[in-house]
Amino acid sequence: MKEIGAKEFEAEVLQENGLVLVDFNADWCGPCQMMKSVLEEFAENNPTVKVVGVDVDDNEDLAREYMVSGIPCMVLFSNGKETKRVVGVQSVKKIERMIGV
C-alpha cells in the first residue's frame, strides 16, 4: 500500500479514473496498524481498486477537509468523488462488500 501526502492526493485520488480506497491512519494507532495487513490482502485480491494510505498526523488539513474524526477511516472514491466510508477495523470481506467487488 502506497503512503501519500496532501501534495500527491489530487493526482493519486481525485484525478484517478476508477476506484481508490484511502486509508486515513496514524503510526501510533494500534487498530490502524492491524488494518495495514488487511488492506494489503484486499489490494492483492482486488487489483482493480487502488489502495493508498494517508497519515493524519502528517496531513492534518487533508484529514480535516475530509472530516476524518476517527481512525482507521477508509474512504472510497470513484472517479475522484467520495462514495462511501467506514471507520474502525474491518475484515477483507467487509471491505469487499462495502465496495461491491
List the helices and strands and how they pair.
Layout: E1 2-4, H1 6-14, E2 19-25, H2 30-45, E3 49-55, H3 60-65, E4 73-78, E5 81-87, H4 92-99
Parallel strand pairs: 1-3, 2-3
Antiparallel strand pairs: 2-4, 4-5
Task: Explain the overall architecture.
With 101 residues, the protein is of the alpha/beta class. The chain has a single domain, classed as Glutaredoxin, CATH 3.40.30.10. Helices cover 39% and strands 30% of the residues. The chain is built from 4 helices and 5 strands; from the N terminus they run E-H-E-H-E-H-E-E-H. Strands 1-3-2-4-5 form a 5-stranded mixed sheet. Helix 2 (30-45) links the parallel strand 2 (19-25) and strand 3.
Structural descriptors:
4 helices, five-stranded mixed β-sheet, 101 residues, alpha/beta, Glutaredoxin
